[in-house]
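Show me any protein, keeping tokens residue-aligned.
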Amino acid sequence: MTPFRCISTVVLLAGLAGCGGDNSFGDLDAYMNEMRLRPPGKIEPTPTFRSYPTFTYSAANLRSPFSRQVKFDVAGQKHGSRNVKPDPNRVKQYLEGFNIEQFEMVGTISNATGSFALLRGAGGVHRLKVGDYLGRNDGRIVAISGSQVDVVEIVPDGEGAWLERPRTIPLKEHS
């Protein structure tokens, strides 16, 4: 037998001798036996929590402190007229159920009966003429040109009267 083999065999036997034999968990077994002999204790009940009154955030409708303050010119503010008001007996058209901001002009068509604007919105492209209504504020088309559609809306002025507010829907290029 070579000296290297002899030394490796001795080291291996010494290592195996250290792995077995006596129970090295004696102190753990003694502690567990002591715990088993103790009488069972009581479990403390869970603490009761006091309920706090709910907080209602009441500043949701106020101006954000991070936005610029808007100054109102009360003297220069337009006042509505009692003569201008929406017609409650008029039958509403289909496009009056949608916000006017969602419409965009995509073109015009002209034929013998007149000129028509093509507006995209409300799930499709719609052909409208002067006098048709769209938008939720009684918006009536008053003029159609190759570059825009002019609409006049009737909106409340906040003081019980009504204002006519002009709006323009510009032609959307490259649509």
